[in-house]
Amino acid sequence: MASLLRGAVRAWFSSGLSPRPSLAPSLPPVPLAPPLGARGRKRGTEYQPKNLKRKHTHGFYRRLATRTGIELVLRRMLKGRRSLTH
User: Fold this and answer.
1) CB under 8 Å to 69, separation ≥6 — which residues?
2) pLDDT tens-digit profile of 15-54?
3) Which of 46, 81, 79 lies closest to 60 in space, CA to CA?
4) Are 62 and 43 spatial neighbours (Cβ–Cβ below 8 Å)?
5) Is 45 exposed, middle or buried (0-12, 13-18, 19+ CB in 10 A)?
6) Going by C-beta distance under 8 Å and a sequence separation of 6 or more, which residues neighbour residue 85?
7) Percent above pLDDT 90 for the chain
8) Which end of the chain has fewer CB atoms < 10 Å from its terminal CB, N or C?
9) Where is this region: Disordered (predicted)?
10) Is residue 58's pLDDT more than 80?
11) 22 burial level (CB within 10 Å; 0-12, 13-18, 19+)
């Protein structure tokens, strides 16, 4: 039964003539999904800023917790940066 239905669907898609498969006229037509691509997707929702996560990741206390973080803060001090960390 499944192979008969599969063959009917395959024949329907390959013919492209009738809106319904000829072997199963009682079935409703299959809705075609819109193609997925760059034009169909919503863009620009990747970055959702969170101040707490930013401060936990790039903050002053996090920088001073490691040797390389201390070096980074010292480099910024020597360069004269107004903002050392977040």
Assistant:
1) 62, 63
2) 665 555 555 567 777 767 666 666 777 778 888 999 999 9
3) 81
4) no
5) exposed
6) 58, 59, 60, 62, 63, 73, 76
7) 43
8) N
9) 15-48
10) yes
11) exposed
